[in-house]
Amino acid sequence: MTSEVEQAAGIPYLDLPAQIRAIRTELDTAIARTMDNCSFCLGPDVARFEEDFAKYCGARHCLGFNSGTSALHVAMTLLDVGPGDEVITTPFTFVATSWAIAYVGAKPVYVDIEDATFNLDPNLVERAITPRTKAILPVHLYGHSANLEPLLKICRERNVPLVEDAAQAHGAKYRGKIVGTFGAMSCFSFYPGKNLGACGEGGALITNHEPLAARARALRDHGSTRRYYHDEVGFNYRMEGLQGAVLGVKLKHLDHWTRERRRVAQRYHELLAGTPLQLPREADYAQSAWHLYVVRHRRRDGLKKHLETNRIGCGLHYPLPLHLQQCFASLGYQAGDFPVAEKAARECLSLPIYPELTEAQIETVGQVIKDFFGSP
Ligand SMILES: Cc1ncc(COP(=O)(O)O)c(C=O)c1O
Hints:
This protein is an alpha/beta fold and 376 residues long. The protein has 14 helices and twelve strands. Helix 5 runs parallel beside helix 6.
């Protein structure tokens, strides 16, 4: 059972201090090394992390970025997506997936999601393709792989590249293989709350294609391959040395953390099985990294309030789909255009899930939810 101390403190939605405490000595050593070598922009720790993360994902190349958003921006630039072009993507994701398309002056073309996985529905993609389609950009939302095979089949047939937004899916698997190398390239975020998070901002682009990697390397560094010579308009999107050092430490723990997340998800499945909630399930092709554990119910707002009253943190990912966001009003979408995404936005509720969550805390969350529904 939960101790009185735990109960008084509540159960946070995310407990980053607990994660940092557990690896603090390793982090201090890595950070001190950067302080000594003063390689604050890129440098040896970033290079080592790039090598290690590429290996982890089974990719030939990894480039460190200062955020997942900037990696996605460069991905669109690498494909020469520009004004007048369209990119097919999901309306149910964090807004940054669509920023990348908007930044290059192209148009996000939304396609509804699957009810079971919250991911882009491959059955609806084909009919959204036009001669202006320059890429398909699915997201592995909540750490659960998108349904890649049918998407890749469409890409091959229509000669359109696929870019994976793997910002939430470090180490997630599709048919037994870690996501990130199914498409032409993939982008990751190392925002602190991600499964693999920096102590600040960070991102990466991985690819198996040498020409894409070489251009990405230049684009993130002012479009230059030789200092003070600039081949094309570039960006300052370099990863900081300190983040490379931190990520190098954390990557060693990622598999263990993912196993712990899977333990938490499994316990939630068991504890919440008899409740009226719609629980998240892995598709037969997926091994989720369980970035988020998102349940669904039409009384979501009441349940959220009930959890918060009981000092249990929870979140909404995401309360408003992108086609209904003010910033994309000019695209002309209306309420009702993507009913599955809109329903998911009304019903979704993210429960606490992180490696440090104790059995007692998981049981408390389960019991508080059961109390809400009046079940034993
Ligand atoms: C699906 C998705 N795409 C892109 C991003 C952007 O990453 P960052 O916050 O590192 O810029 C995020 C991060 O929150 C995300 O969840």
